Amino acid sequence: MRRLSGRNRSALIIGMQGIRARKLRTLLSMVSLFLGILAVVAVQAGASIAERALLSDIELTSGYDGTRVADLYGGPAGTVDVVADTVAGRADAVALVQVQATIGESGVSPIQTGPSGTYQDAITEGPADFCNQTGPEQVCPPIGRAISMQLNALTGDVRSFRPFRHVSGDWLSFDTVPSLSPRIVLNKQAAEGFQLYPVPAALRIDGGTGDSVTPQFVGVVDDGTGWPQAYVRMDELTEWTSTENAGIQVLLAGQTPVEQVLSSKLRAKGMEFAPYEVQSRKDFQEQIGLMRLLFLGLSAFVLLIGVAGVLNVGLATVGERVEEFALRRAVGTPRSLLAGIVLAETLLTGLLTAAAAIGFAAGALEVASGVIGGSDPFLAELQFPWEAAVAGIVAGLVAGVLGGFVPALRAARIPISTVMRA
């Protein structure tokens, strides 16, 4: 560990003594700096939290950065089986076989979000997206006790790619034998529908070949989507119905050999396999950076006002200590040490103010997280960003240098003859 030189150590000790001797002026300097440093800390913390919140929501639907995603629709016969067999039991790849399913009565229009975006509107305004009437001869079935949703059959645990937020119950277990009564995890939108409307426990795949089965609802997750979805094990779905015409989404962990195997197998069936890489941070980096620069510019203006206050206090303090500095010069104190004493006081003042601003911001965030955390799991897990603490310390050091530079020069230029006139 490198120690301070004797001259720097002396400047630091004398600076601390000066702060203790002039507590009121130090407090005034801290007050003038506090709002500026707090603004820098708040902007940095807000930008970091906003970036994390944005990326967190995107990760729910798209996956972590670096995940490679391929969407396969309308493939030839056997495509689902090829993909499912290739990725089954692997930790570096998972497939979501997507089908449209209905739980409830048959032969009716399902309850679904209406034009205004709520389940209740479907009762008064009619079903949305399920009855596309193209001619006067087509009659839409009446709305009955049924809820339609997208059912995602999983070959493995998708949460290693898309970090679903737990709401209630349990997640799917892939270590047990398939059940004849498929276990289903609902997303928040589907769970809301089942809370509002009691429907018969009969699950059917739209266009599927099997009869209806009785599902087991085992849990609820937040998957970031705005429409009803559910998740089921692939092997439990194929126990009772066909997935021949289903859409497929494949998630791959970076450059895994599974990608080459799938590409070869699907190319042999005349189907192109071209995954794209999720780069959410890169896509939004420019937007977030521009927002951060804008608010940092505003907070820097507030910080400069505080620096002006420190500068005025520093000049007044040096004016009162002219005889002291002249006497130190007379006994051989170098000019650089006199300047270092003044700079040490302003730097220490800036660091103390930064500590106070960081502590205040961290406490305010903790209180806000406790008050509004119940409305969103992400808000409940908020932590003070370390980037904001670093920004506060840098702002305190910069303010100390800017506020103490001119007073330090003035102190260094005090002539020895001043002590003779005192």
From TrEMBL:
GO cellular component assignments: plasma membrane
For the keyword Transmembrane, the answer is yes
The record's subcellular location field reads: Cell membrane
In which broad location class does this protein mainly occur, judging by the first location in its UniProt entry?
A: membrane
Which residue stretches, if any, does this entry annotate as coiled coil?
none
Mind telling me which InterPro entries this protein's record contains? ABC3_permease_C (IPR003838), Macrolide_Exporter_MacB (IPR050250)
Q: Which UniProt keywords apply?
A: Cell membrane, Membrane, Transmembrane, Transmembrane helix
Q: How does it sit in the membrane?
A: Multi-pass membrane protein
Regions crossing the membrane: 293-316, 337-364, 384-406
Boundaries of every ABC3 transporter permease C-terminal domain copy: 298-416
Asked whether the keyword Chaperone is assigned, the reply is: no
Q: Which family does it belong to?
A: Belongs to the ABC-4 integral membrane protein family.
Listed name of the protein:
ABC transport system permease protein
The organism encoding this protein is Catenuloplanes niger
